[in-house]
Design brief:
Structural class: alpha+beta
Strand content: 5-15%
Helix content: 40-55%
Strand order of the largest sheet: 13-15-14-17-16-11-12-19
Length: 750
C-alpha cells in the first residue's frame, strides 16, 4: 500500500522558506521530506550546546558527523518505540515507561529493560530518568550476568572457580566487564589452560643439562666468547703462515698509546676490539694465558664451569664444548607456556588436575545469554538521551527555528555564550573549531566579527570564540582589547581580542565613517608634520652646537649683512596685497552666491554635499548589511549549510544589546567649566552682528543694496582698479630707480 504523503507547514524566515517541525507526525514523516528542503545537511558531534553523548548515539557510523540519513533513521526508531510521537516535543529528561509502544519489538525491549533498571535500583513507579541510567556500571554491578561475555570473580559461586579466575587475570591479563571490574572471556580461559598444558609438556621433554645448574651461565659465556675465540685461532694460523706478520696481528701498541692518557673505564668498547690474547704461531689458547681485560670475566667463568681436560683450547675442543650445548639449547628454544611458569610446577599440576575450564566456559555462556537484555538496558540510556535532545536538534537542523526565535527564549545549539565588551552584549558567539578555515571563509559572512582567546582560572583548557557585533559603533574594538565571556554553563572566561574582521555594523555608523576617516587622516598628518618639524629642529640645533666656532673675529666681521633691497620688499608687499585681494574677492563672490540662493536651495545644496561624502559609504553598507549571512561561520566549523541564513538589520538588533542608561540630569564634578548656554548664544549673536557691521561699513554688502555710509568706501569699482593700477606703476618706477641707484653705487665702488 502506498504511503500517504504528509502535509508540511512552511515559514519564511532568515531569507529562505523553511519547513516547520511542530508535531510528532512531522518527526515521524521526516523520511518524506526532500533533503533539498533541509536547512542543514550535516553537522559535527562536538562543540555544540547539546550533550555530546546524545549526538554520538545519533551518529550511527561514529565518524563524528550527523547527516540527514542518520536523523531520518533515528526519527523512525524513536517514533515507533513510543505510543505518542508528540511526547518528543517536551524535551523532558524522564519518561513514563507505560508510554512505550509494546506492540513494537523495540518498544517492548525498552519497556522490559526499563523495568529491570528500576528493579536493580530498587525504585518504585513507572518513571525512569536520565539520572537512573547515568551510571550504567552501577546498574550492572548488581547483576551477576550482564551479557558482555565476560565473567568476574563475583560471577562465580565456587571458591575454586573464583581462584582460577583470579589466577587467569594475574598470568594472562584481563578485559573490562560492563560492571567496571576486571574479568576474563573465552579467549583468556582457553589461552590459560593451553599454557598449562604446553608448559607441562615442555617440562616432560626436558634433556640433561651438560653442566648442571651452571649450564645456562656456561652457555651465556660461551656465546659471548665464540666470535673472539675463533678470531684468535685465525690470527694464530696467519702468524704461523707468515711469521713476519705476527706483530701486526697482535695487539698494536700505538693503539694503546692513543688512549693511555684517557680514563680507560670509558674505553671498554675500544679495548674489546683488541685480540682476545697475545698472538703466537700456535693455534692453542692457554687457559692460563693473559686474556683481554674486556673478555676476562666471561673466559674465567667458562673455564671454571667447563673444567677442560687440557690446559688449553684448540679449535676442535672449543667446537666440542659448543656441541655439548646443542640438545639443551634445542629444548630451551622449544619452551612454551612461559606465562604460567611463575606459578611453579606444583600449582600448575593442581590447576590441570582440578580442570575448572569447562565450568568457566559455562559461566561465560550463561553471561552471553543475557546479551540482548543487557544491550537493551544500555539502549534505555540511548532512548532517554535522544528523547530529551532530538526535537532540539531538529529545530536547529531541519530548520533554524531556535536561531530566529522571536521570543529569544532559547539559543541555537551553535551559540556558545555571551561576550560583554565595549558597553554591549554580543549574543551571537560561536566556538572556533578550525581557525585556518575561519581565516578563509569568515569574511564572506559580511558581519563585523571579533575573534577572542578565552582563559579561565577554573580550568586549564582554553577556548577560541568569534562574536558578531551587530549594533553600535566601532569605537575602540581593536586587537588586544580585553572583555568577559560567559558560556552557557555559567562559567566566566577572560577574553582578549586576537583578530577583527571589519564590516559595516549599521547605516548610521556608515554615515559617519567618512568623517571619522578624514579626522583620523588629518590627525595623523598633523602628528606626522609636528614630529618631522620637531626632528628637523633638533637636528639643526644639534648641528649648530656641534659646529666649530669661528676662530677669527675678522672673518666674522667679513660676513657683513647685505644692504636692504627696497625694490624686493616692495615687490613682495605688492604680491601679498594682490593675493589678499583675490582671496577676499573669491570669498565675497562665494558669500554673494550663497545669499542669492533661496532657503530651499541652500538646504538642497547642503544635503547634496552630505550625500556626496556619506552617500557611497551608506549605499555600500546597506548592500553588505542585506547580505549578512551566518552560513560561512558555520561552514568553517564543519557544518554543511543547505539554505541561506541571513541576518537582516532588524534581526541583527536582537543579537547585540547596548547599555541603556536612564535620562537623568547629572552633573560631572570634573567636567570642564564654561559659560552657560544663554551666554554662548548671546556671544554668538554679538559676533555675527559685528561681522555684519564690518562687512557693511567696508562696502562689501553693496551688491545687496546696502552701500557703506563711509564715503571713502563708496566709490566706483573702476576707481579702485585705477588706484590699484597707479600703485602698481609707482611700485615699478620705484623698483627701476632703486635698481639704477644700486648700479651707480657699484660703479663708484669699482
Amino acid at each position: 500500500m502506498k504511503q500517504k504523503k504528509h502535509q508540511w507547514n512552511y515559514e519564511n524566515i532568515g531569507g529562505s522558506t523553511r519547513v516547520k517541525i511542530t508535531t510528532g507526525a512531522d518527526i515521524a514523516h521526516l523520511d518524506q521530506l526532500d533533503p533539498k528542503m533541509w536547512t542543514v545537511l550535516s553537522c559535527p558531534t562536538t562543540g555544540l550546546e547539546i550533550e555530546e553523548k546524545s549526538l554520538k548515539y545519533i551518529d550511527a557510523d561514529s565518524d563524528g558527523r550527523i547527516r540527514v540519513n542518520e536523523i531520518v533513521t533515528t526519527a523512525k526508531w524513536i517514533t515507533a518505540a513510543i505510543k505518542n510521537a508528540d511526547l518528543l516535543l517536551k524535551g523532558a529528561d524522564n519518561f513514563d515507561i507505560t508510554d512505550f509502544n509494546q506492540e513494537n519489538a523495540e518498544g517492548k525491549k525498552l519497556y522490559n529493560s526499563s523495568r529491570q533498571i528500576l528493579a536493580n535500583l530498587n525504585k518504585e513507579g513507572n518513571v525512569i530518568s536520565l539520572a537512573d541510567t547515568a551510571d550504567i556500571e552501577a546498574i550492572f554491578a548488581k547483576t551477576r550476568f550482564n551479557g558482555d561475555g565476560i565473567i568476574t570473580e563475583l560471577t562465580a559461586d565456587d571458591q575454586d572457580e573464583k581462584a582460577t579466575i583470579a589466577t587467569i587475570i594475574k598470568t594472562m591479563g584481563s578485559v573490562a566487564d560492563r560492571s567496571g571490574d576486571n574479568g576474563v572471556n573465552t579467549e583468556l580461559i582457553e589461552k590459560f589452560y593451553q599454557s598449562l598444558a604446553d608448559y607441562t609438556a615442555w617440562q616432560a621433554a626436558a634433556v640433561e643439562a651438560p653442566y648442571g645448574a651452571d649450564t645456562d651461565k656456561a652457555i651465556e659465556a660461551y656465546n659471548a666468547l665464540d666470535a673472539k675465540v675463533k678470531d684468535y685461532f685465525v690470527r694464530a694460523k696467519l702468524a704461523a703462515f707468515a711469521p713476519e706478520s705476527t706483530a701486526k696481528l697482535d695487539v698494536q701498541t700505538t693503539l694503546i698509546e692513543t688512549i693511555s692518557a684517557d680514563n680507560l673505564t670509558g674505553k671498554t668498547c675500544e679495548i674489546a676490539s683488541y685480540p682476545l690474547a697475545r698472538i703466537t704461531d700456535k693455534a692453542e689458547l692457554s687457559i692460563d694465558a693473559a686474556i683481554n681485560p674486556a673478555w676476562a670475566a666471561q673466559f674465567n667463568t667458562l673455564v671454571s664451569i667447563v673444567k677442560p681436560a687440557e690446559k688449553f683450547f684448540t679449535e676442535a675442543s672449543w667446537a666440542a664444548i659448543g656441541g655439548s650445548f646443542a640438545a639443551y639449547n634445542a629444548w630451551k628454544a622449544a619452551k612454551k607456556g612461559t606465562e604460567v611458569e611463575s606459578l611453579g610446577m606444583e600449582t600448575i599440576e593442581k590447576f590441570i588436575s582440578d580442570n575448572r575450564k569447562q565450568a568457566l566456559l559455562d559461566l561465560v555462556a550463561q553471561d552471553s545469554a543475557f546479551k540482548e537484555e543487557a544491550e537493551s538496558i544500555e539502549m534505555v540510556d540511548k532512548f532517554l538521551h535522544i528523547y530529551r535532545d532530538f526535537y532540539c536538534l531538529l529545530r536547529n537542523f531541519v530548520t533554524f527555528h531556535d536561531f530566529y526565535d522571536k521570543n529569544k527564549t532559547v539559543n541555537a545549539i551553535f551559540q556558545s555564550g555571551r561576550l560583554i565588551i565595549d558597553q554591549r552584549e554580543c549574543r551571537l558567539c560561536i566556538k572556533v573549531a578550525d581557525m585556518n578555515k575561519h581565516n578563509t571563509m569568515a569574511a564572506a559572512s559580511g558581519m563585523y566579527l571579533v575573534y577572542c582567546d578565552c582563559t579561565s582560572k577554573t580550568t586549564p583548557a582554553k577556548e577560541s570564540i568569534v562574536a558578531a557585533v551587530t549594533v553600535g559603533e566601532v569605537r575602540d574594538l581593536t586587537v588586544g582589547k580585553n572583555a568577559i565571556y560567559y558560556d552557557n554553563k555559567g562559567m566566566i572566561w577572560d577574553a582578549v581580542i586576537t583578530k577583527v574582521i571589519d564590516n559595516p555594523i549599521s547605516i548610521g555608523q556608515a554615515f559617519w565613517s567618512p568623517y571619522r576617516r578624514m579626522a583620523v587622516a588629518i590627525e595623523d598628518f598633523i602628528n606626522k608634520s609636528a614630529a618631522d618639524k620637531d626632528a628637523n629642529m633638533m637636528k639643526d640645533m644639534t648641528a649648530k652646537i656641534n659646529a666649530a666656532p669661528v676662530a677669527d673675529a675678522e672673518a666674522a666681521d667679513a660676513k657683513a649683512a647685505p644692504p636692504f633691497d627696497i625694490a624686493k620688499f616692495a615687490g613682495i608687499a605688492a604680491a601679498i596685497g594682490m593675493a589678499v585681494g583675490m582671496i577676499g574677492t573669491a570669498l565675497t563672490s562665494l558669500f554673494r552666491g550663497i545669499l542669492d540662493l533661496d532657503l530651499w536651495q541652500l538646504i538642497a545644496a547642503f544635503v547634496g554635499i552630505i550625500l556626496v561624502i556619506s552617500g557611497p559609504s551608506m549605499v555600500m553598507a546597506w548592500m553588505k548589511l542585506r547580505r549578512r549571512n551566518i552560513a560561512p561561520l558555520l561552514n568553517a566549523n564543519g557544518w554543511a549549510i543547505n539554505a541561506a541564513s541571513k541576518i537582516s538589520i532588524p534581526f541583527g538588533e536582537t543579537l547585540t544589546d547596548t547599555a541603556k542608561f536612564p535620562k537623568l540630569k547629572l552633573k560631572d564634578p570634573y567636567a570642564k567649566k564654561g559659560m552657560p548656554t544663554w551666554q554662548k548664544w548671546a556671544v554668538s549673536l554679538i559676533a555675527l552682528a559685528l561681522l555684519f557691521a564690518g562687512l557693511w561699513l567696508a562696502n562689501l554688502l553693496a551688491w545687496a543694496q546696502l552701500p557703506s555710509p563711509i564715503p571713502c568706501f563708496n566709490e566706483a569699482e573702476a576707481e579702485v582698479v585705477e588706484v590699484v593700477g597707479n600703485v602698481e606703476s609707482v611700485d615699478n618706477a620705484e623698483t627701476a630707480n632703486t635698481a639704477e641707484a644700486v648700479a651707480n653705487d657699484s660703479t663708484v665702488a669699482e
